[in-house]
Design brief:
By secondary structure, the protein is mainly beta. Helices cover about 15% and strands about 45% of the residues. It contains three helices and ten strands. The strands form two sheets. An eight-stranded antiparallel beta barrel has the order 3-4-5-6-7-8-9-10. A two-stranded antiparallel sheet has the order 1-2. The longest helix is centred in the N-terminal third of the chain and has 9 residues. The radius of gyration is 16 Å and the shape is globular. The two termini are about 30 Å apart.
């Protein structure tokens, strides 16, 4: 459950810069990088899906596989509430979230555990977060299909 909660929270905000590509009349490519959003509640209140984990150097293969098999979704809602579920293991987590600058803290209602993530990048459809004091994961990339 702890792993699920950390993944879910981490899922909150991962960001790869989205590129949109269009062709002009002369067939040259115009690449436009998506503009970063400011870290605020309004910009993170949506459903996030964990897309990728980066691991600390000493994490063994079996531990990495456990994370990679997970299919974590985190729904960051208005009013400081979050719900998370690992669609693979069916583990669920819910509680309260608080944003303090570029750090989001998720407090699990059932366990009282608080997970903290630094939001490194935030775009409309993706984000990148770094868990604070996590022994296995160095960063998490998130995607969102919400508007």
């Amino acid at each position: 459950m702890r792993q699920c909660a950390q993944v879910l929270v981490g899922v909150l905000v991962l960001g790869l810069s989205m590129l949109s590509v269009s062709c002009s009349a002369d067939d040259s490519l115009n690449v436009k990088e998506e503009t970063s959003l400011g870290v605020s509640g309004i910009n993170i209140e949506k459903k996030w899906i964990v897309a990728h984990y980066d691991f600390e150097a000493d994490v063994n293969r079996s531990e990495k596989e456990a994370y990679q098999k997970s299919a974590v979704e985190v729904d960051i809602m208005k009013g400081g509430v979050y719900n998370a579920v690992d669609k693979y293991s069916l583990e669920k987590s819910n509680g309260q979230w608080v944003l303090n600058g570029d750090v989001i803290s998720l407090s699990n209602t059932a366990t009282g555990e608080v997970l903290r993530y630094k939001i490194e990048e935030l775009n409309r459809a993706d984000a990148k977060v770094s868990p604070i004091n996590h022994k296995d994961i160095s960063s998490i990339e998130l995607v969102s299909f919400s508007k």
